[in-house]
Amino acid sequence: METRETITKVLVEITGVKDLKLDVPENSEFGDYSSNVAMTTFENAKTQIPNAKWGNPGQYAQELAEKLKNDDKLMAVVEKIEIAGLGFINFFLKKENLIQNLEKINTVPEKYGCSSIGTGKTVVIDYSAPNIAKRFSIGHLRSTIIGQALYNIYNFLGYKTIGDNHLGDWGTQFGKLLYMIKRESVPDFDIEKLERLYVAFHEEAAKNPEIENEARNWFKKLEEGDKEAREIWEKCKDISLSEFNRIYSRLGVEIDYAYGESFYEDKMKDLVAGFENGQLKGLEIGEDGAKIIDLREFGINVPLMFLKSDGTTTYATRDLATLDLRQKKWNPQIIIYEVGAEQTLHFSQVFAAGKKLGLVSDEVVLHHTKHGLYLGTDGKKFRTRSGSTVKLEEVLDEAVEKAKKIISKSETSRGFSKEEVNKLSEVVGIGAIKYFDLMHAPQSDIVFDWDKVVNMEGNSGPYLQYTFARTQSVIAKAKNTNHEIVKKIGEINSDELSVLRHLVHFPEVVAEAGEKYAPNLICNYLYELAKRYNSFYNSTKIIGGENEPFDLSLTSATGTVLKSGLSLLGIQAPDKM
Q1: 461/438 Cα distance (integer angstroms)
Q2: Cβ neighbours of residue 564 under 8 Å, at least 6 residues apart?
Q3: Do the beta carbons of residue 442 and residue 523 sit within 8 Å?
C-alpha cells in the first residue's frame, strides 16, 4: 500500500486533485495501477491553462506523464509509465518493489494485508438476527456469513470490532405462540413443534381473524410481566438458542453479544420516559392515537411509528433503544446493519430518527448493507418443492454430501481414512456454501445453483481450497525448505511475474472491501490469484527446477495470501484435499 500511496501523492501534487484514487486494471497488460485523472479534469485544466498545447485528454495525459517521470520519489518505485486509450495513465511497478513485497509476505505471513486503518476506532456489526421459535432458514444465511466476513475484515484492518446478534425474541408473534401453546395445552415442545404452532395460528386466523386480538392480548401480558406468559416465553427462548448455537458452531461463526429484543425492554421504557419528561422532543400523535416521529426533514415522507395506539412497542421502538445503547456502551464510529433489502425503508427511518433525537451524532456512520434474496433456478424465491421455506441445515447437509462424493473420487484422497474424508467433506461443503454467497455483491439476488456451488473447476470455494492445498503439497515435497529468493530479477518469466504482480494488491483489496462493505472483492481477488498460480504451476517445474528457491518462495506467499483471504471470508483452508 505504501507504493500506491507514493504514486497517489505525486499525482495529487502535479494535478491538484485531492480526492484522487488509483485503480487496479483488470488486465495486467495495462499496468499495476491506472488513473483516469487526465480524462476527468481535462476541461477544467483547459480553462485554467488557456495557452496549453494539448487539445484532448490523451495529450494532457502525455504531458502529465512527462512531469511524473521527472519525480524521483515516483520513479524510485515505478518502472515505466504509459498512456492508453483516451487518456489513461498506467503505472508499472519496478520488479525490485515486487520482490521486496514477496520477501515481506514470507517474513511476516500472518500480518500481510492487515493494517492500522482502524486504530482507535470502533465498529459495531449487527448480523444474523434469527427469530426465536423458528429454525434457521436459508434466508438467515446471508446475514450470518456476510456479517461475519465484515467482522473479520474490520478486525483485520485494526478496528475494535463488536458483533451484536439482535435476536428476534419480542413482538406480537410471541403472543400468537403463547395463545396456541395455552389453547392446545402443549406440555412440552421443541423448535419443530413451535414452528408448526405458528403456522397453525395463521391458518386459523385466515378463517377467524378475531384470534389476532387474542394474540395481541397475550403479548401485552408478556410486556406487563405476567408470570405464566414469561415462563412459557423463556422456555421458547432456551430451546431456540440451543438450536442456533449448534448451527453457529457448524458454520464456524462466533458473535460477541446476543442481545434479544427483549433485552431492550427497560431501555424502551427509558426512551418513552425521555419524551414524557421533555428530554427528548419530536413525538407526535398520528392516526388512531399512535405516537409517531415525523421525518420529512430527512426526505422521508412516511413517519416512524414509535408506539402503537394501545401503547405497545414496535420494531422502531426496539431499534431506537438498541441504537441508543450501542452508542452509549461502545461509542462506535461505524454501525453496520447486515439485514435484508426488504428492511430498507425501516432502517432509513430508524437512522433518521436516531439522528433527529440525538441518540447518535451526525459523525457516526450508520450503514445498512441491504443484502438480496436467494432465488431458485427459475428466478423465483428459493423454496422447497412443496413451497415451504428451505431450512439452512438441509442445504448444509446436501453441500457436505456433494463435497464427499467429489473427494471420494479424487486420487489425492486415496490415503484418507473415513474420518478424514468426513471431516474434509464438512470443511469443503460448508466452505462452498459460504464462498458461493460471498462471491456475489451483498445487495444482489443470488440464483442458487448446485452446479456452481460445489465446483472444482470454476470460481468456487473448493477451487480455492484445492489451490491452497496444492501450494502446501509443493512445499511439503521440497527438499529445500529455505525459501530465500536467489533468482536475478531479469530472469523472472511471465507466469512468475503475473503471480508476483497480483500479490502486491492484497492489502489494498482488503481495505477496499471494508470501505465498501463488500467481501465479494476479496473473492474476486482470490479467484484471480488462484488462476494465476495454477497457470504458473502448470507451466513451471518448481521442485528441481533451476529457479526452485524463488518458485518455492512464490508458492509459499501464494499459500499465505489464499489462507488469509479465505480466513477473512470465514472459510477453512485444508492442507490436503
Answers
A1: 10
A2: 109, 110, 112, 113, 506
A3: no
Total count of residues recorded for the chain: 577
Distance of CA 339 to the CA centre of its chain: 11
Round to whole Å and give the CA distance between 485 and 552: 9
CA 533 to chain centre: 25
C-alpha cell at 312: 405497545
Which positions ≥6 away from 220 have C-beta within 8 Å?
175, 310, 312
Give the whole-angstrom CA distance, residue 394 versus residue 243: 14
93 grid coordinates: 511497478
Q: CA nearest 25: which of 533, 569, 528, 538?
A: 528
264-299 burial, b if ≥16 CB within 10 A, otherwise e? bbebbeebbebbeeeebebbeebeeebbbbbbeeee
Residue 267, C-alpha cell as written in the block = 431501555
Indicate the SS3 state at residue 180: helix
SS3 (DSSP) at 161: strand
Closest CA to 501 of 99, 2, 22: 99
Helix boundaries (H) for 89-138: 95-107
CA distance 521 to 515: 11
Tell me the pLDDT tens digit for each residue of 321-334. 999 999 999 999 99
124 contacts 326 by C-beta, under 8 angstroms = yes
Q: Residue 122: in which H helix or E strand, if any?
A: strand 122-126
The answer to whether residues 121 and 333 touch, using CB atoms and an 8 Å cutoff, is: yes
Phi and psi, residue 228, nearest 5°: -65, -45
Q: Which CATH number fits domain 122-368: 3.40.50.300, 3.40.50.620, 1.10.10.10, 3.40.50.10860?
A: 3.40.50.620
Task: Mark 118-129 as b/e (b = at least 16 C-beta within 10 Å).
Answer: beeebbbbbbbb
- Provide the pLDDT for residue 411: 67
On whether the CB atoms of residues 485 and 99 are closer than 8 A, the answer is yes
- pLDDT, block means (10 residues), the chain with 577 residues: 88 89 88 94 82 86 94 94 94 93 92 94 97 86 96 98 94 91 88 90 92 92 92 92 93 95 91 89 87 95 92 89 96 97 96 95 96 85 63 91 86 80 95 96 90 83 95 86 52 91 96 97 98 96 87 94 98 93
In angstroms, the CA 6 to CA 78 distance is 10
pLDDT in tens, 137-169: 888 899 999 999 999 999 999 999 999 999 999
Q: For 529, what's the count of Cα atoms within 13 Å in the CB-facing half-sphere? A: 33
Phi then psi dihedrals of residue 306, to 5 deg? -85, -45
Fold (CATH) for 2-93: Gyrase A; domain 2 (3.30.1360)
Angular region, 22: left φ>0, alpha ψ -120 to 50, beta rest: beta
Nearest to 58 by CA among 87, 82, 81, 36: 87
Sketch the domain layout of the chain as residue ranges: 2-93, 122-368
DSSP state of 111: G
Q: What angle do CA 420, 423, 426 make, to 5 degrees?
A: 145
Confirm if 126 and 368 have CB atoms less than 8 A apart.
no
205-214 own/partner pairs: CB under 8 Å, 24+ apart = 211/179, 214/175, 214/179
